[in-house]
Amino acid sequence: MNLKSKIKLNTVRIKQLRKKRNLSVNEISNFLCITPNTYYRWERGEFVPTPNDIRVLAHILLVNVTYISDLESINVYDDIYTNKEIGELFNKKQLPVETQETLLKLNSVLRTLKNENSALKFENKRMRNSFQELQIPMYIKNQHLVFVNSNNVFNNVFLKDNEYAGKKNRDLFSINESDTLTHLEANILKSNSAINNHKIVLNGNVYLFFATPIQGNSEGETYILANLIDIECYEKIITRYSMFEYIIEHSNIAMWIKKLAPSRHYEFYSKKIESIFGYPYSSIKDNPYKWREIVHPEDLGIRIPFDPLIKSSEPKVYKYRITTSSEKIKWIQERIFFDSNSNRFIGMVTDITEELSEKNV
Questions:
Q1: What predicted TM-score, i.e. pTM, was given to this entire model?
Q2: What distance in Å separates the CA atoms of residue 56 and residue 87, rounded to the nearest whole number?
Q3: Quick one: which H or E segment has residue 253?
Q4: For 26-32, what is the mean pLDDT?
Q5: Considering 101, 129, 157, which residue would you say is the last residue of a domain?
Q6: Helix%, strand%, coil% for the chain, nearest 5
Q7: Backbone phi, then psi, for 293, in 5-degree steps?
Q8: Residues 79 and 164 both lie in one domain
Q9: pLDDT tens-digit profile of 161-188?
Q10: Residue 146 and residue 343: Cα distance in Å, rounded?
Q11: Do 139 and 226 form a contact (C-beta atoms < 8 A)?
Q12: What is the pLDDT of residues 233-269, one digit of tens each?
């Protein structure tokens, strides 16, 4: 719900009550089945929650809903709990606070499970798409070492008819190549351990073989997920990555990479981020919420949300202030864009404090 909503939430009171109950933002967010970032936006008045969420929040904070919002006080909880028996139980009599908290937590667990199920379905779909989109040959075999799936790249390189079902190694490779690959795969199943960077020759070309055992849906059912990287391409990639890494670490620009939903965790920070932000690299990399502690309080709303970038082909440029560990104020310019090929946000950060100072002079 946006700020144009008629519902008013008393942000000062909910922050005071949360602290009075000794609840951290992470704890109250878990109860509400939302992200800490979303809850922060509630307390800052940037986003107004739904009536249902406000009522749940009131019960968590042990106050009447009218104390933290302009919603009317009612005793009907069916709009919060889909379980009618729980709603009727609330209507018949005022339950003890402990019981209310327990029911709220149970409801929170149910909502969490529902959210997690949706997230798993999303991840499953994304993984299936990624399996097909990755530009390296990949395949899956069952415990009898029969192909059960392969991506388009593998099919184009090794399968003339693009039909993998029921095939074994000898249907695709020479006897020697097939025996070598079969021996590797049998060892993976026997030891239940992965193999990495193993050189292997297939159809006369040298590949790096990566494979790991994965558990199927049925108990005791094990599969092999494998990918093959052309060693010449691999060496070129390593060389290019080393050059890229050198350029990034010796430039005045800090870089970060962040995953798309549901996790949205930062995957990469260049070391330059340490000198720009004035905090140890590890404290920034290991804490996804460190940014909120660093950005000047008056500029917290400038950089979020990222979602509009997903539909835009153009990068977005943000300028805001930060406070370093030595209490020094710096001006930062951050250019962020969304890479649809990898489903990741990429950001480049520059310290523009001196540049702005020179302009002002």
A1: 0.40
A2: 13
A3: none
A4: 80
A5: 129
A6: 45, 20, 35
A7: -80, -25
A8: no
A9: 667 778 899 988 999 999 999 999 999 9
A10: 32
A11: yes
A12: 777 767 776 777 777 777 788 888 887 655 556 777 7
**155 lies in the same domain as 125:** no
Of the candidates 241, 240, 242, 270, the one whose C-alpha atom is nearest the C-alpha of residue 254 is 270
Q: Are 154 and 137 in contact (CB under 8 A)?
A: yes
pLDDT value, residue 74: 47
- Specify the 3-state DSSP secondary structure of 351: strand
The rounded distance, in Å, linking the Cα atoms of 104 and 98 is: 10
Long-range CB contacts (within 8 A, 24+) of 149-157: 154/228, 157/203
Range of the domain at 257: 251-360
Tokens of 191: 């030891």
Q: How far apart are CA 10 and CA 112, in angstroms?
A: 26
In a domain, 241, yes or no: no
Q: What are 276-333's pLDDT values in tens digits?
A: 888 887 777 777 677 778 888 888 777 666 666 766 777 888 899 999 888 889 999 9
